[in-house]
Amino acid sequence: MRLDERSLSKLKWRCRRGLLENDLFIERFFRHHEETITTRQAAGLQILMDLADNDLLDLLLARREPEGDADCPEVREVLALMRRPPAITT
Q1: Secondary structure, 3-state, the chain
Q2: CA dihedral in degrees (69, 70, 73, 74; nearest 10)?
Q3: Is 52 a domain residue?
Q4: Counting Cβ atoms within 10 Å, is residue 25 exposed (0-12), middle (13-18) or buried (19+)?
Q5: What is the Cα–Cα distance from 28 to 32, expressed in whole angstroms?
Q6: Contact (Cβ atoms closer than 8 angstroms) between residue 53 and residue 19
Q7: What's the number of domains the chain is made of?
Q8: What domain range is 67 assigned to?
Q9: CATH number of the domain residue 35 falls in
Q10: Is residue 89 in some structural domain?
Q11: Structure pTM?
Q12: How far apart are the first and last CA of the chain?
């Protein structure tokens, strides 16, 4: 199920981070997927936002994989989308 506007707005606010590198990944994710974010993906993002900035960055850069509570299908789905390199435009 697609996320409604109010929930999307709250999610975007929740996703603000203190580390610029994380913000860049998150901004790109929203730029490409904002119109299609599902409640499942939102749940995955919420779990990721509970992590410390450096732990989140390690996951985004694929230095490590999710562990513990973060090792669930929702998180892995969102991470795959966030890790996808940006499309090259000419």
Answers
A1: CECCHHHHHHHHHHCCCCCHHHHHHHHHHHHHHHHHCEHHHHHHHHHHHCCCHHHHHHHHCCCCCCCHHHCCHHHHHHHHHHHCCCCCCC
A2: 110
A3: yes
A4: buried
A5: 6
A6: yes
A7: 1
A8: 5-83
A9: 1.10.150.250
A10: no
A11: 0.87
A12: 34
Asked if 22 and 56 count as a contact pair (C-beta separation under 8 A), the reply is yes
Q: Is residue 13 part of a domain?
A: yes
Answer yes or no: is pLDDT of 88 > 90. Answer: no
Whether 88 maps to a domain, the answer reads no
Summarised one tens digit per residue, pLDDT across range 52-76 is 999 999 999 999 999 999 999 999 9
Contact 83, 58 (CB under 8 A): no
Distance CA 44, CA 26 (A): 13
| Contact of 60 with 82, CB cutoff 8 Å | yes
Tokens 């929930």 label which residue? 7
